[in-house]
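Tutorial handout. Part one gives the primary structure; part two gives the three-dimensional structure as tokens.
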Amino acid sequence: QVQLVESGGGLVHPGGSLTLSCAASGFTVSSTDMSWYRQPPGKERELVALFSTVGGGFMFIESVKDRFRISRDNVKNTVYLQMNSLKPEDTAMYYCKASFYNTWGQGTQVTVSS
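Part two.
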């Protein structure tokens, strides 16, 4: 059974950092593009970052590309989203997705507030 479990969210002050984890089971994270999405309150879900299996390339949306980093640990079968210099507008529920399997995790809440 293909499954994704996110963790690592929480409440952080502006300028702080968090690292989200997405633990996969039922498949290997190196076999498919892995993405992080977020859904702010009252807004649509948006793609934040992608780790491509083609050459191991990355993609980030403009608003986070100098602050966020996506990485993958094939041994732990886990994908990470390291978020630095967090801003209030980063507040959202964050989800990971396995592209080939069209599978989502349950999400982890990130709140950036003073």
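Part three, for discussion. The chain has a mean pLDDT of 94. The longest strand covers residues 18-25.
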